Amino acid sequence: MTDPADLANDIAAEVSTVLVGMDDQVERLTIALLTRGHILLEGVPGVAKTTLANTFARASGLTYNRVQMTPDVLPADITGTSVYREEIGEFELRTGPVFANVVVADEINRATPKTQSALLEAMAERHVTIDGETLDLPDPFLVVATQNPIEMEGTFELPEAQRDRFQQKLTITLPNTDNERELLERFNNAPTMGPEDVTAVVSQADIQAARDVVTQVHIEDVVQDYILEIVAATRDHADVAHGASPRGSLALLQTAKARAAIRGRDYVISDDVKQMIEPVLRHRLVLTTDADLSDVSAADIIDDLRTSVTPPEGKVTDANLLTEKPGESGREDSN
């Protein structure tokens, strides 16, 4: 079986030959890949959202398609349609860009709700129906939908129920000075460098084997209770009108197991859960009107949850199962 830690390290190292300062995002894309999740990726223009997805796909040995979402994009432009070929007198099925391992829906909030729903249905069902014929989508299948947070004119905001279908919401911020300097030096020496320069370092068989390892990761009952307490706290929080659903609980469980596996452990610790709270839950929270008027953000509530919900260290006899030992992780979390 493929070690998820080796797989994650190989992908991260290859992606870093093109991109700078995106270790956290690459790790969380890997977590989504190993747990069959989808990603909502937010950032201002020019921070390499699409390049990240393309580079990640190539390093993972996966096929890649990108769709520029605009108001005139129709569901058939995503899924495909039957086209009449006059020369043979028959209809020919032409599949759409959704038939790829990694699909980028660029600026998803610029598509109409009908088109958004068609894509999100494909995400949930992992198949599409074209003129009565049901076709399975490729496996692995990962949708990365991007959003621009600063230009909302002419957009159709994703409804809460549709945001909930994304396992994680990631943000890409502007790079710090050191990372941007390294980026300038790198592209000064190789101006045409891009995702096409990345080599596949894992295979689809490796990904499936790593997925199997993730499913076998052990999680103590007290750590599961910690997940349940966090999700319950989102529902009871004074600034939250609607908290996370059971889908959010499952996503927190699955991503924590994947995070443990890519850190070389076969068991989940509370820090695995804590580090995944923000990407898994922040887009699932519907704030109250008073919270919106008071400029309370989902990030503020996540910070409150981290401090108000006590992790389970010390609640079981073997506390070593709940804390990370020195040397188990070669990564640093920014959260």
UniProtKB/TrEMBL annotation:
SMART domains assigned: AAA
Pfam families, alphabetized: AAA_3, AAA_lid_2
GO MF terms, alphabetically ordered: ATP binding; ATP hydrolysis activity
Keyword annotations of the record: ATP-binding, Nucleotide-binding
Region entry Disordered, spans: 308-335
Domain AAA+ ATPase: 35-176
Compositionally biased residues, Basic and acidic residues: 325-335
This protein's record includes keyword Magnesium: no
Protein name: MoxR family ATPase
Gene source species: Haloarcula nitratireducens
